Amino acid sequence: GNSVTQMEGPVTLSEEAFLTINCTYTATGYPSLFWYVQYPGEGLQLLLKATKADDKGSNKGFEATYRKETTSFHLEKGSVQVSDSAVYFCALSTGSARQLTFGSGTQLTVLP
Amino acid sequence: GAGVSQTPSNKVTEKGKYVELRCDPISGHTALYWYRQSLGQGPEFLIYFQGTGAADDSGLPNDRFFAVRPEGSVSTLKIQRTERGDSAVYLCASSLAGDGRNEQFFGPGTRLTVL
């Protein structure tokens, strides 16, 4: 079956620090990979996605590269802001299982 | 509004009662998903509709849970004989097509508390 393993949190960083949140997956078939973000008091929203190997998804300064050889999709940002404080979820879907399979989420807090 | 809406936003019920949770997807989205999110966890899949039919209900935990989408738009998740373990946030999402690559747009969720 499909599964996502995500770096445990919480993660606390100072503003302008470098962020990495690790995500690895197992999947039957060829997955599409996603990062979703949940800001305080808001619903889940898509941050970025990649649908094939070596693709890089990017949005709002965040990036993640689809690495088939290591089955990973690590989220990175060069300089975090206080407004990036949220819970980040790595997820995948496949053609045969179109629902999203989520990791357990990583709580990020950025301090000024 | 143009987003996915869910009602009610909060539902408190007593053990053993029946509840219905409603989801209004984005207009024109043929695929609709229900997920359940427990505290500190990622959402877990319950059921997926393509149009009016349940294409995959493998995530429903038992036969107390049932969902319908009679006209291919609004969906209702029904829980019979609620138990305290059913307490969670129930999320609905829709996407333009259910091919696994399209973005799923999530509603704000219904927080269900079973006393």
Radius of gyration from the alpha-carbon trace of chain A, in angstroms:
13 Å
What percent strand of chain B?
A: over 45%
The helix-and-strand class of chain B reads: mainly beta
From the spread of the alpha carbons, the general shape of chain B counts as globular
Approximately how much helix is present in the residues of chain A?
Answer: under 10%
Runs of chain B in which pLDDT lies below 50 for 5 or more consecutive residues are none
Number of helices of chain A: 0
Q: Major β-sheet of chain B, in short?
A: 7 strands, mixed
The helix/strand series of chain B, from N terminus to C terminus, equals EEEEEEEEEEE
Order of helices and strands of chain A: EEEEEEEEEEEE
Largest interface: A-B, 26 and 26 residues
- End-to-end separation of chain A: 41 Å
**Span between N and C termini of chain B?**
33 Å
Report on the structure:
The complex is a heterodimer of chains A (112) and B (115). In chain A, 39% of the residues are buried. In chain A, a hairpin with a 7-residue loop joins strand 10 and strand 11 (101-102). Chain A has 112 residues and is an all-beta fold. Chain A contains no helices and 12 strands. Chain A is 0% helix and 50% strand. Chain B is mainly beta. Helix content of chain B is 0%, strand content 48%. Chain B is built from no helices and 11 strands. Chain B is globular and about 35 Å long. In chain B, 36% of the residues are buried. The model of chain B has no long low-confidence stretch (mean pLDDT 93). The chains are: A mainly beta (112), B mainly beta (115). Chain A binds chain B through residues 4, 6, 32, 34, 36, 42-46, 49, 51, 89, 91, 93-95, 97-105, and chain B through 31, 33, 35, 40-45, 48, 55-56, 59, 91, 93, 98-101, 103-109.
